[in-house]
Amino acid sequence: MQELRDATGLTQQQLADYVMESRATISMFESGLRPMPITAMQQLTALFLLLPPNTNADNIPLVINEMAVQTTAADKAVENYQRQCSLKLQRKLKQLKQLENNYTQCLKLLQVLRSLAQQLPKNKNNSYQHAWIRIAEQATLKRIDTCSLAKQQILHLQIEQLTIH
Fold it and tell me: What tens digit of pLDDT does each residue of 131-147 get?
């Protein structure tokens, strides 16, 4: 830490003022006699990353102000992203309701088709009806698969939304 402080031209007192500690505490941090709190580490890391070498102590308030501006911009970007995800999720939830209705209708249709297939006697006169029922069953099963995949995508969006918050 002392090398970074020396490279930026800051004194122990200036760092102490910045992290709201005493100069003696900064000295103990530098010599390794006292562990540095995480908040102080975060503050100093951010400060050293933004300060060019041999920074004038008068520039520290400007750097701190710039850090606040960057933090505010980042917070706004995160809020905007959360809002977009929320809107996207609301649209997907509406689609999910429609999908669930479609899924239910497909299951009912599948039951009716299978019931018809069982009721029709198997002979040459109604072979086209059996073929039609098989084709309708396959189409219905594809719709059910499509509904299931869409529901999975919506579930992934919900999980993503939870991890963002």
Answer: 888 888 898 888 888 87
